[in-house]
Design brief:
Chains A, B: Pfam families: DUF2520, F420_oxidored. Chains A, B: Residues 122-245 form the DUF2520 domain. Two copies of one chain form a homodimer. Chain A is α/β, with parallel strands linked by helices. Chain A has nine helices and eight strands. Chain A has an eight-stranded mixed beta sheet, sandwiched between helices. Chain A is elongated. The structure holds NADP nicotinamide-adenine-dinucleotide phosphate (2 copies).
Chain lengths: 255, 255
C-alpha cells in the first residue's frame, strides 16, 4: 500500500482525494490544508491537519497548492529526502526545495471542485529528477485509472501552453459564438451539437484533416460577407487572424 | 407520406438520403445529381436521374447543391409554384428562383460523406417566405429525429458565422496545439481528453462561466512566459488577441 499525504484542498486536491479513496493500492493517510475548514467535512474518513509540523511519515507528499506557493510550502516541510511532487503544468520541478526527492504529477485536464471527474479522462504527465522515483509515481497515477506519460520539463511546458489554446482560447471562441448569435436573438444552444462534434472529430482524425469552411476553401466571397457582418472590432480581428492561420496551415495566401 | 425529390449527392444530400430512408413519414421518390455515377449505387432503392427535365412531381424539392449553383439549379427546374428549399447557412432564400415557393432547411452541423451522423445531433433551422410552407418543413425535419428551430434570415446568417468560430476556428486552435506540442516531441493525444471536456462543459454551463486560465485570472507572469515560449509570430499574435478578448469579456484591461 502506498501512503500519501495530500496538501491543498482546491480543485485538484479534492479530486485526487476522491480518486485515491476508490483505489486499493494507494491510501491517503493525512490531508493538510492551510485553512482547516475546507477539509473538515472529510475528518471522519481521513486524518486532517492545518499544521505542517504535524505531518506524518509517508511514501509521497503531493502538493496540490497554488502555483505561487509551491516553492514556499515545499521549503516549510519539516523533513527532507522524501518524495515531494507538485501538480502544476507551468511550475518548474526545481521550484521544489532541493532537500526533497522531487517530481511532478501534472493532470492534463480542467478541474473544478463541483464537477465530477473520471480519471480515465485525465492523462497524468509524470516528471522526475531522479529516475528511481518514477515507478512509484507511475503506480499512483495508474491506480487512479489515468493514462500516464513520462515527460520532460520542456514537454510539460508546451503541453501547458497548448492546453491554453485548446481549452481557454477555444472556450473564448464559444463565448464569441454566444455573443454573435445573441446579437440577433438566435439561440446559442443550436451550436452545441456542432461544438461537441468538432471536439469528437479530432479524437480520431488530425485537426489538419478535419478542417473545412471558407478559410480552408479560400472562399473570398463568404469571408468578405462575414467580415462585413462582424460589428465588434476585436471579433473582426480574430476572424482575420484565424482565417490567415488556416490559410497558412493549408498553403493559401494571406487575407 | 411526404414525397421528396432530392437534388445533389454531396455530404449533405447523402446523409439526408440515408436519414429519410429510415423514416416512415417521408419518402424520397427520386434522387437527382448532375453526375449520375455518384448516385448509381443507390439505383436499386430509389429512382435516379441526371436530367432536370425528368423530375417527378413531389411535395418538396430539396436542393443540397453547392452554394454557388443554388440559384442556377432552382432556375432550371422545369416547373413552378412547388416548394423548393436549399440547405445552405449562407445563401439567401431569395436566391431561389421566385417562380417557386421558397424555403431553407439549414442543418447546423458539419457533415462529411464518410462519417456517420445521427440527426438527433443535427439541429435543423427552418426558414420560409410564406408561412404556409412551415408545417411541412417542420414535419420533414422532425421525421429525421432532428431538433428544429424556426429562424429568420438574419438569424441564419449569424448562426452560420458563429459556426465558423466554434467549428473552423476552434479546429485551427486544435491544430496550433498540435504544432506546439510536436515542436517538443510531446504527444498531441494527451490533449484530446481536455478538448472533449472543454466542449462537454459548455453543454451545461455558459462559456462565460466555464472560462478559466491565465487570461481570466490576469496572471501576467504566466502570460509573459507563454509569449516568450511561442516562436511562431502568428501563434503569438493569436495568443495576444485571444488573451485580450478574454480580458475584455471578463472586465480586465488589455494586454
Ligand atoms: N484546476 C485545474 O484545472 C488544474 C489542472 C492541472 C493542474 N493544476 C495545478 O494544481 C495546483 C492546484 O490547483 P487548484 O486549481 O486545485 O487550485 P485552487 O483550487 O485555487 O486551490 C489552491 C490551494 O492552495 C492552497 N494555498 C494557497 N496559498 C497557500 C499558502 N500560502 N500556503 C498553503 N496553502 C496555500 C489553498 O488553500 P486555502 O484553501 O487555505 O486557500 C488551496 O487549498 C496548481 O499548481 C495548478 O496549477 C490545476
Ligand atoms: N457539408 C456541410 O457540413 C454542410 C452543412 C450545412 C449546410 N451545408 C450546405 O449544403 C449544401 C451542400 O453542401 P455539401 O457539403 O453537401 O456539398 P458537396 O459535398 O460539395 O456537394 C455538392 C453537390 O452539388 C452538386 N453540384 C455542383 N455544381 C453543380 C451544378 N452546376 N449543377 C448541379 N449540381 C451541382 C455536386 O454535383 P457533382 O456530384 O456532380 O459534383 C454535388 O452533388 C451547400 O449549400 C452547403 O452550404 C453543408
Amino acid at each position: 500500500m502506498i501512503s500519501v499525504v495530500l496538501l491543498g484542498a482546491g480543485n485538484v486536491a479534492t479530486h485526487l482525494f476522491k480518486g485515491f479513496d476508490k483505489t486499493s493500492e494507494v491510501s491517503v493517510i493525512q490531508w493538510y490544508n492551510r485553512s482547516i475548514h475546507a477539509i473538515k467535512p472529510y475528518a471522519n474518513s481521513v486524518d486532517i491537519t492545518d499544521d505542517l509540523n504535524d505531518l506524518k511519515d509517508a511514501d509521497i507528499y503531493i502538493l496540490a497548492v497554488s502555483d505561487d506557493v509551491i516553492s514556499e510550502v515545499s521549503k516549510n516541510l519539516p523533513f527532507d529526502d522524501k518524495l515531494v511532487v507538485h501538480t502544476s503544468g507551468s511550475v518548474s520541478v526545481y521550484d521544489l526545495d532541493m532537500k526533497h526527492k522531487r517530481g511532478v504529477l501534472y493532470p492534463l485536464q480542467s478541474f473544478s471542485k463541483s464537477a465530477e471527474m473520471d480519471f480515465a479522462n485525465v492523462p497524468i504527465c509524470i516528471e522526475t529528477i531522479d529516475k528511481k522515483s518514477y515507478p512509484l509515481l507511475k503506480k499512483i497515477a495508474v491506480s487512479l485509472g489515468s493514462p500516464t506519460k513520462r515527460i520532460n520539463s520542456d514537454q510539460r511546458r508546451v503541453l501547458h501552453l497548448a492546453a491554453v489554446f485548446v481549452n481557454n482560447f477555444t472556450n473564448q471562441l464559444y463565448r464569441i459564438g454566444h455573443e454573435i448569435t445573441e446579437s440577433e436573438g438566435a439561440e446559442f444552444d443550436l451550436l452545441k451539437p456542432l461544438i461537441l462534434e468538432t471536439a469528437k472529430k479530432i479524437q480520431e482524425m488530425s485537426p489538419f484533416k478535419a478542417q473545412t469552411g471558407p478559410a480552408k476553401r479560400n472562399d473570398k466571397k463568404t469571408i468578405k460577407k462575414h467580415l462585413k457582418q462582424l460589428e465588434n472590432e476585436q471579433h473582426k480581428a480574430i476572424y482575420e487572424l484565424l482565417t490567415d492561420s488556416i490559410k497558412a496551415t493549408h498553403g493559401r495566401k494571406k487575407l
